[in-house]
Amino acid sequence: MIEKNVSTCLVSVAALVAGSDAVAAQDWSGLYGGLSYGSNSGTSPAQPYVYDEGYQMDGNALGLFAGYRWNASDRIVMGVELAIQGSIDVSPPAAYPNDGDDYSFENMTDVKLSLGTPLGKALVYGFAGMSSGKLDAYGTDEYMYNATGVNYGVGVDYMVTDHMTVGLEYITRNMTGYTSGANPEDQSNFNTVSLRTSFKF
User: Fold this and answer.
1) Mean pLDDT score of the chain, rounded to an integer?
2) Cα–Cα distance, 179 to 47 (Å, whole number)
3) H or E segment to which residue 5 belongs
4) What confidence tens digit (pLDDT) does each residue in 54-70 have?
5) pTM assigned to the model
6) How many domains does the chain divide into?
7) φ/ψ of residue 8, rounded to 5
8) DSSP sequence for 6-72
């Protein structure tokens, strides 16, 4: 449902912007950096114990990102970005509501390659890349479990001024991490919907 709503929102924004002939295409080339605020959902990619339901990623988190874009043509904008998200809460599965251990997912890092098209003052884009992070199982460095995988998603940025943009982005991460005992490592998916603001240098 979240994926459908986000996709519908992005398509609607693109259609509205494309329908305005009075707005000229903008120059998106150059360095940029900014802040994000994201809502997370899905299954934790690293689990200190194996339950059928898995540990759940939830809650909101702040993030930082920086990147570079260049205009490959009048209608194609390419880019590369590094994004880091703050600590994300990890909840026990519903079948184990009394599990009081404190889990969080730390150092969530995404490297993304993007391809987009300018529509007036907006840039609609898709991207794919690699992600990594660590599950902090007990609030100590002794029990930190690595997770890695791929990411992909879509987004839209709107140029408020020549040097400032606001945007919305949806990212899915397919990651693999530690599972206990002799169990195999299972791929887990979690998603983030983020509001973003950035400045071009």
Assistant:
1) 84
2) 5
3) helix 2-18
4) 788 888 999 999 999 99
5) 0.82
6) 1
7) -60, -40
8) HHHHHHHHHHHHHT-TTSPPP---EEEEEEEEEEEEEE-S--SS--SS-PEEESEEEEEEEEEEEES
Q: What is the CATH number of the domain that holds 64?
A: 2.40.160.20
The pLDDT score that the predictor gives to residue 124 is 98
Residue 41's DSSP bridge partners are 191
Q: How far apart are CA 138 and CA 142, in angstroms?
A: 8
- How many angstroms separate the CA atoms of 159 and 26, rounded? 8
Whole domain around residue 90: which residue ranges?
Answer: 2-200
Distance, C-alpha 145 to centroid of its chain: 20
Nearest of 2, 46, 55, 26 to residue 170 by alpha carbon: 2
pLDDT in tens, 75-132: 999 999 999 999 998 887 666 666 656 788 999 999 999 999 999 999 999 999 999 9
User: Tokens 């890695």 correspond to what residue?
Assistant: 148
